[in-house]
TrEMBL record, chain A:
Pfam families: OAD_gamma (PF04277). Residues 52-65 have a biased composition (Polar residues). It is found in: Cell membrane. It is a single-pass membrane protein. It comes from the Bacteria. It comes from Catenovulum sediminis. The keyword Protein transport does not apply. It catalyses: oxaloacetate + 2 Na(+)(in) + H(+) = pyruvate + 2 Na(+)(out) + CO2. This is Probable oxaloacetate decarboxylase gamma chain. The lineage of its organism: Bacteria, Pseudomonadati, Pseudomonadota, Gammaproteobacteria, Alteromonadales. Keywords: Cell membrane, Ion transport, Membrane, Sodium, Sodium transport, Translocase, Transmembrane, Transmembrane helix, Transport. Belongs to the OadG family.
UniProtKB/TrEMBL annotation, chain B:
Pfam families: OAD_beta (PF03977). PANTHER family: OXALOACETATE DECARBOXYLASE BETA CHAIN 2 (PTHR35806). It is a multi-pass membrane protein. Keywords: Cell membrane, Ion transport, Membrane, Sodium, Sodium transport, Translocase, Transmembrane, Transmembrane helix, Transport. Heterotrimer of an alpha, a beta and a gamma subunit. Belongs to the GcdB/MmdB/OadB family. The chain crosses the membrane at residues 16-35, 42-61, 67-92, 104-128, 134-156, 163-181, 211-237, 258-279, 285-305, 317-336, 356-376. Its main location: membrane. It is an enzyme of class 7 (translocase). It catalyses: oxaloacetate + 2 Na(+)(in) + H(+) = pyruvate + 2 Na(+)(out) + CO2. This is Oxaloacetate decarboxylase beta chain.
Length: 86, 377
Protein backbone atom coordinates (compact mmCIF):
# COMPACT_ATOMS: atom_id res chain seq x y z
CA UNK A 1 0.00 0.00 0.00
CA UNK A 2 2.75 2.43 1.03
CA UNK A 3 4.78 1.47 -1.99
CA UNK A 4 1.75 1.81 -4.23
CA UNK A 5 1.02 5.28 -2.85
CA UNK A 6 4.53 6.55 -3.42
CA UNK A 7 4.51 5.29 -6.98
CA UNK A 8 1.15 7.03 -7.51
CA UNK A 9 2.60 10.21 -6.05
CA UNK A 10 5.56 10.05 -8.39
CA UNK A 11 3.19 9.56 -11.30
CA UNK A 12 1.08 12.53 -10.16
CA UNK A 13 4.18 14.73 -9.85
CA UNK A 14 5.20 13.61 -13.29
CA UNK A 15 1.76 14.52 -14.68
CA UNK A 16 1.97 17.91 -12.96
CA UNK A 17 5.25 18.64 -14.71
CA UNK A 18 4.38 17.22 -18.12
CA UNK A 19 0.89 18.72 -18.04
CA UNK A 20 2.01 22.26 -17.28
CA UNK A 21 4.85 22.12 -19.80
CA UNK A 22 2.54 20.86 -22.55
CA UNK A 23 -0.21 23.40 -21.75
CA UNK A 24 2.31 26.24 -21.87
CA UNK A 25 3.91 24.95 -25.06
CA UNK A 26 0.58 24.45 -26.77
CA UNK A 27 -0.74 27.90 -25.92
CA UNK A 28 2.70 29.42 -26.58
CA UNK A 29 2.64 28.06 -30.12
CA UNK A 30 -0.87 29.43 -30.44
CA UNK A 31 0.36 32.92 -29.44
CA UNK A 32 2.98 32.78 -32.16
CA UNK A 33 0.43 31.56 -34.73
CA UNK A 34 -2.12 34.24 -33.82
CA UNK A 35 0.50 36.96 -34.27
CA UNK A 36 1.54 35.47 -37.59
CA UNK A 37 -2.06 35.17 -38.71
CA UNK A 38 -2.85 38.75 -37.71
CA UNK A 39 0.08 39.94 -39.82
CA UNK A 40 -1.04 37.89 -42.80
CA UNK A 41 -4.76 38.60 -42.86
CA UNK A 42 -5.30 41.27 -40.25
CA UNK A 43 -3.90 44.40 -41.84
CA UNK A 44 -5.94 44.51 -45.04
CA UNK A 45 -9.04 43.63 -43.10
CA UNK A 46 -12.47 45.23 -43.30
CA UNK A 47 -12.19 46.66 -39.77
CA UNK A 48 -10.01 49.66 -40.70
CA UNK A 49 -11.78 49.88 -44.06
CA UNK A 50 -15.16 50.11 -42.38
CA UNK A 51 -13.77 52.92 -40.26
CA UNK A 52 -12.54 54.68 -43.39
CA UNK A 53 -15.64 54.36 -45.51
CA UNK A 54 -17.96 56.27 -43.22
CA UNK A 55 -15.12 58.73 -42.59
CA UNK A 56 -14.67 59.84 -46.17
CA UNK A 57 -18.21 60.98 -46.87
CA UNK A 58 -18.45 62.69 -43.47
CA UNK A 59 -15.14 64.47 -44.01
CA UNK A 60 -16.29 65.48 -47.47
CA UNK A 61 -19.54 66.71 -46.05
CA UNK A 62 -17.83 68.72 -43.35
CA UNK A 63 -15.41 70.04 -45.99
CA UNK A 64 -18.21 71.09 -48.28
CA UNK A 65 -20.14 72.79 -45.47
CA UNK A 66 -16.94 74.51 -44.49
CA UNK A 67 -16.40 75.50 -48.11
CA UNK A 68 -19.92 76.93 -48.27
CA UNK A 69 -19.26 78.98 -45.14
CA UNK A 70 -15.98 80.25 -46.55
CA UNK A 71 -17.63 81.06 -49.88
CA UNK A 72 -20.44 82.84 -48.06
CA UNK A 73 -18.00 84.83 -45.95
CA UNK A 74 -15.90 85.86 -48.97
CA UNK A 75 -18.87 86.80 -51.08
CA UNK A 76 -20.26 88.79 -48.19
CA UNK A 77 -16.94 90.61 -47.86
CA UNK A 78 -16.76 91.26 -51.61
CA UNK A 79 -20.33 92.50 -51.57
CA UNK A 80 -19.52 94.82 -48.66
CA UNK A 81 -16.35 96.08 -50.44
CA UNK A 82 -18.25 96.85 -53.62
CA UNK A 83 -21.02 98.59 -51.71
CA UNK A 84 -18.43 100.69 -49.85
CA UNK A 85 -16.55 101.65 -53.03
CA UNK A 86 -19.55 102.74 -55.06
CA UNK B 1 -56.51 -6.92 4.75
CA UNK B 2 -53.85 -8.53 2.58
CA UNK B 3 -54.63 -5.94 -0.10
CA UNK B 4 -53.93 -3.08 2.29
CA UNK B 5 -50.65 -4.65 3.40
CA UNK B 6 -49.57 -5.11 -0.20
CA UNK B 7 -50.52 -1.52 -1.00
CA UNK B 8 -48.63 -0.28 2.07
CA UNK B 9 -45.60 -2.27 1.00
CA UNK B 10 -45.76 -0.47 -2.34
CA UNK B 11 -45.80 3.08 -0.91
CA UNK B 12 -42.75 5.27 -0.83
CA UNK B 13 -43.00 5.68 2.93
CA UNK B 14 -42.59 1.98 3.62
CA UNK B 15 -39.63 1.65 1.30
CA UNK B 16 -37.51 4.66 2.15
CA UNK B 17 -33.99 4.17 3.31
CA UNK B 18 -32.65 7.05 5.33
CA UNK B 19 -29.91 7.57 2.75
CA UNK B 20 -32.51 8.19 0.08
CA UNK B 21 -34.23 10.71 2.32
CA UNK B 22 -30.93 12.54 2.75
CA UNK B 23 -30.30 12.54 -0.99
CA UNK B 24 -33.80 13.82 -1.71
CA UNK B 25 -33.16 16.66 0.71
CA UNK B 26 -29.85 17.32 -1.06
CA UNK B 27 -31.92 17.56 -4.25
CA UNK B 28 -34.27 20.03 -2.61
CA UNK B 29 -31.28 21.99 -1.32
CA UNK B 30 -29.95 22.28 -4.87
CA UNK B 31 -33.39 23.43 -6.04
CA UNK B 32 -33.42 26.02 -3.26
CA UNK B 33 -29.93 27.26 -4.23
CA UNK B 34 -30.98 27.46 -7.87
CA UNK B 35 -34.30 29.23 -7.32
CA UNK B 36 -33.72 31.48 -4.30
CA UNK B 37 -29.98 32.10 -4.51
CA UNK B 38 -29.78 31.93 -8.35
CA UNK B 39 -26.65 29.72 -8.22
CA UNK B 40 -26.20 28.52 -11.82
CA UNK B 41 -29.97 27.94 -11.96
CA UNK B 42 -29.93 26.62 -15.53
CA UNK B 43 -28.00 23.59 -14.35
CA UNK B 44 -28.64 23.21 -10.65
CA UNK B 45 -32.40 23.15 -11.19
CA UNK B 46 -32.46 20.09 -13.48
CA UNK B 47 -29.64 18.49 -11.45
CA UNK B 48 -31.55 18.98 -8.20
CA UNK B 49 -34.75 17.63 -9.69
CA UNK B 50 -32.89 14.69 -11.17
CA UNK B 51 -31.45 13.97 -7.73
CA UNK B 52 -34.95 13.88 -6.24
CA UNK B 53 -36.28 11.64 -9.03
CA UNK B 54 -33.44 9.17 -8.92
CA UNK B 55 -33.81 8.54 -5.18
CA UNK B 56 -37.48 7.66 -5.29
CA UNK B 57 -37.80 4.09 -4.03
CA UNK B 58 -39.45 1.38 -6.17
CA UNK B 59 -39.87 3.65 -9.22
CA UNK B 60 -36.25 2.94 -10.20
CA UNK B 61 -35.88 5.85 -12.60
CA UNK B 62 -32.13 5.30 -12.82
CA UNK B 63 -32.24 1.52 -13.01
CA UNK B 64 -32.00 -0.15 -16.42
CA UNK B 65 -35.32 0.58 -18.09
CA UNK B 66 -35.93 3.85 -16.23
CA UNK B 67 -36.05 7.15 -18.08
CA UNK B 68 -33.05 8.72 -16.33
CA UNK B 69 -31.05 5.59 -17.02
CA UNK B 70 -31.55 6.09 -20.74
CA UNK B 71 -30.92 9.82 -20.62
CA UNK B 72 -27.61 9.13 -18.88
CA UNK B 73 -26.68 6.29 -21.19
CA UNK B 74 -27.44 8.20 -24.38
CA UNK B 75 -26.05 11.55 -23.36
CA UNK B 76 -23.26 11.23 -20.85
CA UNK B 77 -22.01 7.67 -21.13
CA UNK B 78 -21.34 8.43 -24.79
CA UNK B 79 -19.93 11.89 -24.05
CA UNK B 80 -22.38 13.51 -26.47
CA UNK B 81 -24.10 16.04 -24.17
CA UNK B 82 -21.03 17.83 -22.84
CA UNK B 83 -19.68 18.07 -26.39
CA UNK B 84 -22.93 19.59 -27.71
CA UNK B 85 -22.80 22.08 -24.84
CA UNK B 86 -19.24 22.87 -25.82
CA UNK B 87 -20.36 23.58 -29.39
CA UNK B 88 -22.96 26.01 -28.03
CA UNK B 89 -20.39 27.69 -25.80
CA UNK B 90 -18.15 28.03 -28.86
CA UNK B 91 -21.00 29.71 -30.71
CA UNK B 92 -21.41 32.15 -27.81
CA UNK B 93 -17.71 32.98 -27.42
CA UNK B 94 -16.11 36.03 -28.98
CA UNK B 95 -12.36 35.53 -29.33
CA UNK B 96 -11.79 39.15 -30.38
CA UNK B 97 -10.19 40.17 -27.08
CA UNK B 98 -7.81 37.23 -27.26
CA UNK B 99 -6.83 37.73 -30.90
CA UNK B 100 -6.13 41.40 -30.17
CA UNK B 101 -3.83 40.46 -27.29
CA UNK B 102 -2.62 36.87 -27.78
CA UNK B 103 -0.22 37.02 -24.80
CA UNK B 104 -3.28 36.50 -22.62
CA UNK B 105 -3.08 32.82 -23.55
CA UNK B 106 -0.23 32.55 -21.02
CA UNK B 107 -2.64 33.49 -18.25
CA UNK B 108 -5.08 30.83 -19.43
CA UNK B 109 -2.19 28.35 -19.30
CA UNK B 110 -0.98 29.40 -15.84
CA UNK B 111 -4.41 29.02 -14.29
CA UNK B 112 -4.40 25.34 -15.29
CA UNK B 113 -1.81 24.78 -12.54
CA UNK B 114 -4.85 24.36 -10.28
CA UNK B 115 -5.78 21.20 -12.19
CA UNK B 116 -2.42 19.51 -12.03
CA UNK B 117 -1.66 20.54 -8.45
CA UNK B 118 -5.00 19.11 -7.34
CA UNK B 119 -4.15 15.85 -9.05
CA UNK B 120 -1.26 15.63 -6.62
CA UNK B 121 -3.54 16.59 -3.71
CA UNK B 122 -6.10 13.91 -4.60
CA UNK B 123 -3.44 11.22 -4.49
CA UNK B 124 -2.16 12.61 -1.16
CA UNK B 125 -5.70 12.21 0.25
CA UNK B 126 -5.18 8.46 -0.04
CA UNK B 127 -3.08 8.79 3.13
CA UNK B 128 -6.32 9.31 5.05
CA UNK B 129 -8.12 6.01 5.63
CA UNK B 130 -11.38 5.75 3.70
CA UNK B 131 -9.99 7.34 0.53
CA UNK B 132 -8.88 5.23 -2.34
CA UNK B 133 -8.49 7.38 -5.45
CA UNK B 134 -6.83 5.89 -8.49
CA UNK B 135 -4.91 8.13 -10.85
CA UNK B 136 -7.94 8.20 -13.16
CA UNK B 137 -10.21 9.26 -10.28
CA UNK B 138 -7.72 11.92 -9.25
CA UNK B 139 -7.54 13.32 -12.79
CA UNK B 140 -11.31 13.52 -13.07
CA UNK B 141 -11.50 15.34 -9.73
CA UNK B 142 -8.63 17.67 -10.58
CA UNK B 143 -10.37 18.97 -13.71
CA UNK B 144 -12.80 20.81 -11.40
CA UNK B 145 -9.92 23.31 -11.16
CA UNK B 146 -10.51 24.09 -14.82
CA UNK B 147 -13.81 25.67 -13.74
CA UNK B 148 -15.49 24.44 -16.85
CA UNK B 149 -18.64 22.34 -16.37
CA UNK B 150 -18.84 20.51 -19.72
CA UNK B 151 -15.11 19.69 -19.68
CA UNK B 152 -15.39 18.31 -16.14
CA UNK B 153 -18.39 16.16 -17.05
CA UNK B 154 -16.76 14.94 -20.25
CA UNK B 155 -13.55 13.93 -18.50
CA UNK B 156 -15.36 12.36 -15.55
CA UNK B 157 -17.55 10.29 -17.88
CA UNK B 158 -14.37 8.98 -19.53
CA UNK B 159 -12.17 8.44 -16.48
CA UNK B 160 -14.35 8.02 -13.38
CA UNK B 161 -18.07 7.58 -14.13
CA UNK B 162 -18.74 6.57 -10.49
CA UNK B 163 -17.65 9.96 -9.23
CA UNK B 164 -19.42 11.95 -11.95
CA UNK B 165 -22.30 13.17 -9.80
CA UNK B 166 -20.09 14.60 -7.09
CA UNK B 167 -17.63 16.08 -9.60
CA UNK B 168 -20.35 17.79 -11.64
CA UNK B 169 -22.05 19.20 -8.56
CA UNK B 170 -18.71 20.43 -7.20
CA UNK B 171 -17.74 21.98 -10.56
CA UNK B 172 -21.01 23.88 -10.97
CA UNK B 173 -21.22 24.91 -7.31
CA UNK B 174 -17.74 26.40 -7.37
CA UNK B 175 -18.47 28.18 -10.65
CA UNK B 176 -21.44 29.76 -8.92
CA UNK B 177 -19.19 30.67 -5.98
CA UNK B 178 -16.56 32.43 -8.14
CA UNK B 179 -17.59 35.89 -6.83
CA UNK B 180 -17.01 34.67 -3.27
CA UNK B 181 -13.88 32.51 -3.69
CA UNK B 182 -11.81 34.67 -6.04
CA UNK B 183 -11.74 38.27 -4.67
CA UNK B 184 -9.95 37.50 -1.36
CA UNK B 185 -7.23 35.59 -3.24
CA UNK B 186 -6.91 38.35 -5.83
CA UNK B 187 -6.65 41.05 -3.18
CA UNK B 188 -4.16 39.08 -1.08
CA UNK B 189 -1.77 38.69 -4.00
CA UNK B 190 -1.88 42.23 -5.41
CA UNK B 191 -1.36 45.68 -3.93
CA UNK B 192 -3.55 48.72 -4.40
CA UNK B 193 -1.20 50.29 -6.95
CA UNK B 194 -1.23 47.18 -9.15
CA UNK B 195 -5.01 46.96 -9.01
CA UNK B 196 -5.23 50.55 -10.30
CA UNK B 197 -3.27 49.88 -13.47
CA UNK B 198 -5.26 51.02 -16.50
CA UNK B 199 -4.72 48.95 -19.62
CA UNK B 200 -4.46 50.18 -23.19
CA UNK B 201 -7.53 49.85 -25.33
CA UNK B 202 -7.57 46.74 -27.54
CA UNK B 203 -7.25 47.06 -31.30
CA UNK B 204 -10.25 46.13 -33.42
CA UNK B 205 -10.10 42.60 -34.81
CA UNK B 206 -11.17 41.87 -38.38
CA UNK B 207 -13.73 39.25 -39.33
CA UNK B 208 -11.08 37.40 -41.36
CA UNK B 209 -8.96 36.91 -38.26
CA UNK B 210 -11.96 35.67 -36.34
CA UNK B 211 -12.77 33.14 -39.07
CA UNK B 212 -9.20 31.87 -39.36
CA UNK B 213 -8.78 31.57 -35.58
CA UNK B 214 -10.98 28.50 -34.90
CA UNK B 215 -9.57 26.73 -37.96
CA UNK B 216 -6.06 27.42 -36.72
CA UNK B 217 -6.81 26.17 -33.21
CA UNK B 218 -8.34 23.01 -34.64
CA UNK B 219 -5.35 22.42 -36.89
CA UNK B 220 -2.73 22.62 -34.17
CA UNK B 221 -4.89 20.52 -31.82
CA UNK B 222 -5.25 17.73 -34.34
CA UNK B 223 -1.53 17.86 -35.01
CA UNK B 224 -0.30 18.03 -31.41
CA UNK B 225 -3.00 16.68 -29.12
CA UNK B 226 -5.66 14.59 -30.92
CA UNK B 227 -7.09 13.50 -27.54
CA UNK B 228 -8.35 17.05 -27.04
CA UNK B 229 -10.09 17.25 -30.42
CA UNK B 230 -13.54 16.09 -29.24
CA UNK B 231 -13.72 19.14 -26.96
CA UNK B 232 -11.70 21.62 -29.00
CA UNK B 233 -13.22 20.43 -32.28
CA UNK B 234 -16.83 20.95 -31.19
CA UNK B 235 -15.86 24.27 -29.64
CA UNK B 236 -14.23 25.44 -32.87
CA UNK B 237 -17.20 24.27 -34.93
CA UNK B 238 -19.53 26.43 -32.84
CA UNK B 239 -17.16 29.37 -33.04
CA UNK B 240 -16.72 29.08 -36.80
CA UNK B 241 -20.52 29.01 -37.27
CA UNK B 242 -20.69 32.20 -35.23
CA UNK B 243 -17.96 34.11 -36.99
CA UNK B 244 -18.26 33.02 -40.63
CA UNK B 245 -21.48 34.97 -41.06
CA UNK B 246 -23.12 32.65 -43.60
CA UNK B 247 -24.84 30.19 -41.23
CA UNK B 248 -26.49 32.53 -38.75
CA UNK B 249 -29.40 30.11 -38.39
CA UNK B 250 -27.15 27.26 -37.29
CA UNK B 251 -25.19 29.54 -34.99
CA UNK B 252 -28.37 30.81 -33.34
CA UNK B 253 -29.66 27.26 -32.90
CA UNK B 254 -26.38 26.10 -31.37
CA UNK B 255 -26.30 28.94 -28.86
CA UNK B 256 -30.00 28.95 -27.98
CA UNK B 257 -32.39 26.09 -28.70
CA UNK B 258 -29.88 23.27 -28.92
CA UNK B 259 -27.86 24.22 -25.87
CA UNK B 260 -31.07 24.71 -23.87
CA UNK B 261 -32.44 21.30 -24.80
CA UNK B 262 -29.15 19.62 -24.04
CA UNK B 263 -28.84 21.50 -20.74
CA UNK B 264 -32.15 20.08 -19.52
CA UNK B 265 -31.09 16.51 -20.23
CA UNK B 266 -27.51 17.02 -19.09
CA UNK B 267 -28.78 18.32 -15.74
CA UNK B 268 -31.20 15.41 -15.34
CA UNK B 269 -28.51 12.89 -16.24
CA UNK B 270 -26.05 14.39 -13.76
CA UNK B 271 -28.80 14.40 -11.13
CA UNK B 272 -29.43 10.73 -11.80
CA UNK B 273 -25.86 10.09 -10.62
CA UNK B 274 -26.67 11.58 -7.22
CA UNK B 275 -27.93 8.30 -5.86
CA UNK B 276 -27.45 7.61 -2.16
CA UNK B 277 -24.91 4.82 -2.60
CA UNK B 278 -22.74 6.85 -4.96
CA UNK B 279 -22.94 10.22 -3.24
CA UNK B 280 -23.06 9.56 0.50
CA UNK B 281 -19.42 8.62 0.88
CA UNK B 282 -16.36 10.27 2.40
CA UNK B 283 -15.02 10.52 -1.12
CA UNK B 284 -17.69 13.12 -1.93
CA UNK B 285 -16.46 15.29 0.93
CA UNK B 286 -12.93 14.85 -0.38
CA UNK B 287 -14.04 15.87 -3.88
CA UNK B 288 -15.79 19.00 -2.60
CA UNK B 289 -12.70 19.99 -0.61
CA UNK B 290 -10.32 19.28 -3.50
CA UNK B 291 -12.52 21.28 -5.85
CA UNK B 292 -12.19 24.37 -3.67
CA UNK B 293 -8.42 23.86 -3.46
CA UNK B 294 -8.15 23.40 -7.22
CA UNK B 295 -10.09 26.58 -7.84
CA UNK B 296 -8.03 28.63 -5.40
CA UNK B 297 -4.68 27.40 -6.76
CA UNK B 298 -5.84 28.12 -10.31
CA UNK B 299 -6.85 31.66 -9.39
CA UNK B 300 -3.63 32.27 -7.47
CA UNK B 301 -1.34 30.97 -10.22
CA UNK B 302 -3.21 33.04 -12.82
CA UNK B 303 -2.72 36.20 -10.74
CA UNK B 304 0.95 35.39 -10.09
CA UNK B 305 1.56 34.88 -13.81
CA UNK B 306 -0.17 38.18 -14.55
CA UNK B 307 2.03 39.88 -11.95
CA UNK B 308 5.10 38.50 -13.67
CA UNK B 309 3.85 39.68 -17.07
CA UNK B 310 3.01 43.06 -15.55
CA UNK B 311 6.59 43.43 -14.26
CA UNK B 312 8.07 42.35 -17.60
CA UNK B 313 5.85 44.69 -19.60
CA UNK B 314 6.74 47.65 -17.38
CA UNK B 315 3.38 47.91 -15.64
CA UNK B 316 1.08 47.77 -18.65
CA UNK B 317 -0.87 44.72 -17.46
CA UNK B 318 -3.19 44.76 -14.49
CA UNK B 319 -2.43 41.58 -12.52
CA UNK B 320 -6.09 41.16 -11.58
CA UNK B 321 -6.93 39.85 -15.05
CA UNK B 322 -4.90 36.72 -14.31
CA UNK B 323 -7.74 35.51 -12.11
CA UNK B 324 -9.93 35.24 -15.20
CA UNK B 325 -7.60 32.54 -16.53
CA UNK B 326 -9.70 29.89 -14.80
CA UNK B 327 -12.43 29.66 -17.44
CA UNK B 328 -15.86 30.14 -15.76
CA UNK B 329 -16.90 32.43 -18.64
CA UNK B 330 -18.00 35.18 -18.16
CA UNK B 331 -18.34 35.15 -14.39
CA UNK B 332 -14.59 35.28 -13.66
CA UNK B 333 -14.13 38.24 -16.03
CA UNK B 334 -16.99 40.10 -14.31
CA UNK B 335 -15.40 39.48 -10.92
CA UNK B 336 -12.10 40.90 -12.21
CA UNK B 337 -13.95 43.96 -13.50
CA UNK B 338 -15.66 44.47 -10.16
CA UNK B 339 -12.50 44.13 -8.07
CA UNK B 340 -10.75 46.53 -10.47
CA UNK B 341 -13.58 49.07 -10.12
CA UNK B 342 -13.27 48.88 -6.32
CA UNK B 343 -9.72 50.23 -6.60
CA UNK B 344 -10.27 52.65 -9.46
CA UNK B 345 -13.88 53.53 -10.33
CA UNK B 346 -12.89 54.54 -13.89
CA UNK B 347 -10.98 51.40 -14.75
CA UNK B 348 -13.06 48.93 -16.77
CA UNK B 349 -11.15 45.67 -17.06
CA UNK B 350 -13.98 43.57 -18.48
CA UNK B 351 -12.76 43.42 -22.09
CA UNK B 352 -9.18 42.84 -20.96
CA UNK B 353 -10.30 40.02 -18.67
CA UNK B 354 -12.28 38.35 -21.48
CA UNK B 355 -8.97 37.46 -23.21
CA UNK B 356 -7.58 35.30 -20.38
CA UNK B 357 -11.11 34.09 -19.72
CA UNK B 358 -11.60 32.49 -23.14
CA UNK B 359 -7.94 31.41 -23.08
CA UNK B 360 -8.84 29.52 -19.90
CA UNK B 361 -11.53 27.59 -21.80
CA UNK B 362 -8.96 26.51 -24.37
CA UNK B 363 -6.43 25.83 -21.62
CA UNK B 364 -8.72 23.53 -19.67
CA UNK B 365 -9.75 21.69 -22.84
CA UNK B 366 -6.06 21.16 -23.59
CA UNK B 367 -5.42 20.04 -20.00
CA UNK B 368 -8.32 17.59 -20.31
CA UNK B 369 -6.77 16.25 -23.51
CA UNK B 370 -3.44 15.75 -21.77
CA UNK B 371 -5.08 13.88 -18.89
CA UNK B 372 -7.03 11.70 -21.35
CA UNK B 373 -3.86 10.93 -23.26
CA UNK B 374 -1.71 10.14 -20.24
CA UNK B 375 -4.15 8.54 -17.79
CA UNK B 376 -5.81 5.50 -19.26
CA UNK B 377 -8.68 4.32 -17.05
Amino acid sequence: MENNLSSLLIEAANLLLVGMVVVFMFLGILIFLIKLMSKLVGSDAPAPASVNIPNRPTSRKSNSTQDKKVVAAISAAVHQYRQDNK
Amino acid sequence: MDGITTLWAATGIANFHWQQLIMISVGFLLLYLAISKKFEPLLLLPIGFGAVLTNIPIAGLSDPGGVLYYVYKIGIDTGVFPLLIFMGVGAMTDFGALIANPKMLLLGAAAQAGIFATLFGAILLNLIPGFDFTLADASAIAIIGGADGPTAIFLASRLAPDLLGAIAVAAYSYMALVPIIQPPIMKALTNEKERKIVMEQLRPVSQKEKIVFPLMVLTITLLLLPEATPLVGMFCLGNLMRECGVVDRLSKTAQNELINIVTIFLGLAVGSKLSAEAFLTVETLGILALGAVAFSIGTASGVMMAKLMSKLSGGKINPLIGAAGVSAVPMAARVVNKVGLDSNPHNFLLMHAMGPNVAGVLGSAVAAGILLALVAP
